[in-house]
Amino acid sequence: MMIIRLKMRWLASLVGAVFVLTLVTSCLRHHSTDDNVTYVSKDDPEMNAAIAKARNSLADFWQIYDKHPNGESDFCLKVKITDKEQNEYFWVVNLERKDGKTFGTINNDPDIVHNVKIGDRIALNEPDISDWLYMRDGKMVGNYTLRALFKHMSKDEAEKYKQMLADP
Hints:
Number of helices: 4
Helix content: 10-25%
Distance between the termini: 26 Å
């Protein structure tokens, strides 16, 4: 089983009609006790296709990360952490590339692994990266694994999240 994390906290500072980004944003703000965790089979074809798409476009992510050509912000990576043959996926924030290595900070509490905790600074292995996202003009770019979860959501909930995406 894969564990996919979605967080429901980001818009605390925005008011009214602007509801953009209440979910995903595990990556964009710190941990909330309202974690919405969805378990997905490791053989789920839509999730595996989403991970493949994210991995295949990782070079594009790094190009935008390096240059921020249109004011992009809130860069995050989703990484697989393994502990005693158990895998769990975490959004990692505060990314840093230095001396050919990538580092980031775990941004949510674990549910099944015990070798990391929220706030841990870790070195990332590229093969463990399963998704990425950043913000551009108030819309989320990337986050392909979220799209694979639409089938697990109500129609209204899925529609709400589609409105957050730059290209649903």
